[in-house]
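Practice problem 4.
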């Protein structure tokens, strides 16, 4: 039934359209040459039968009509992964390393020899069950699926992730949390001298934790009252006004920072260890004031919320926060 429908479809389009790819025979095999609706369909059709060649070309046209990219039927996932690894990104080195590890350790062994067109709902379900058998939790598998999508989109930007009924890929968003100013002030006395400056800077600049930890003294312009940062997530350069609170916590540090180190916050004994201490110290403090749901990243939400309450236009808030769009 399906084959007859495709034959009928290919016959109608091949006879009626004057901008269709042509069918050519090279040796024993049939080839298509040309494009349809801007999608290049040139290539071997893998058959010596002219009727089958016509049907296959008709299927490719049908896929284009439906919004799919028929080229994905031919590309192997491992080749898409090579392309993905070669594309430059603004992600932090640690993030890149983690993503590449997921792709190499989990995705390539399972999907590597499959074409992109073969990655269907059923195949995703097989991968899901296999990972669950090895003890992976759904949150981990969900991240792996999003990395799978990122790899394929490097080749085919129009590819849509098939629905996986047993795992909701886009869970309901949690409510955006933030601290009111009086709540934030009650947190400060509970922080150590090491953690407090980082928290204050994050709250009154809207910087993500990684960007706050990587701040350097040349980025701070005390004379003009701005901090200039190139965000690690989007690579966008932003200039954020220095609030009195930020100036207050940075001024003592400026007086004692050591020559040879431009970092504002010392990463001892390592950046990751310092990051853990900051997050843990902040988490203990918000628990103590009865707001255990608050995360460090919610300081960024608090920054944006305070600007909105002050009447700042959304486009300017997006600019100051380094967001790619107002949404």
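Answer key:
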């Amino acid at each position: 039934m399906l084959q007859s429908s495709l034959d009928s479809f290919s016959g109608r389009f091949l006879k009626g359209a004057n901008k269709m790819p042509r069918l050519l025979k090279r040796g024993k095999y049939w080839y298509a040459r040309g494009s349809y609706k801007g999608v290049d369909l040139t290539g071997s059709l893998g058959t010596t039968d002219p009727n089958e060649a016509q049907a296959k070309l008709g299927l490719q046209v049908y896929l284009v009509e439906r919004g799919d990219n028929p080229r994905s039927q031919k590309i192997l996932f491992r080749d898409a992964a090579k392309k993905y690894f070669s594309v430059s990104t603004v992600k932090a080195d640690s993030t890149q390393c983690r993503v590449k590890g997921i792709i190499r350790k989990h995705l390539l062994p399972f999907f590597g020899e499959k074409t992109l067109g073969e990655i269907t709902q059923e195949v995703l379900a097989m991968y899901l069950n296999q990972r669950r058998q090895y003890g992976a939790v759904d949150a981990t598998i969900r991240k792996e699926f999003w990395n799978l999508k990122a790899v394929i989109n490097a080749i085919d930007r129009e590819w849509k992730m098939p629905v996986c009924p047993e795992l909701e890929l886009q869970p309901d968003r949690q409510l955006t949390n933030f601290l009111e100013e009086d709540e934030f002030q009650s947190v400060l006395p509970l922080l150590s001298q090491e953690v407090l400056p980082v928290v204050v800077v994050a709250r009154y600049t809207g910087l993500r934790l990684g960007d706050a930890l990587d701040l350097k003294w040349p980025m701070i312009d005390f004379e003009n009252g701005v901090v200039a940062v190139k965000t690690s997530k989007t690579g966008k350069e932003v200039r954020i006004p220095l609030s009195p609170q930020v100036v207050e916590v940075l001024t003592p540090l400026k007086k004692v920072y050591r020559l040879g180190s431009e970092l504002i916050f010392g990463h001892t004994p390592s950046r990751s260890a310092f990051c853990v201490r900051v997050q843990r110290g902040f988490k203990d403090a918000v628990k103590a004031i009865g707001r255990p749901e608050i995360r460090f990243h919610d300081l960024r939400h608090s920054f944006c919320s305070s600007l909105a309450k002050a009447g700042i236009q959304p486009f300017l808030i997006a600019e100051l926060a380094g967001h790619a769009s107002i949404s």
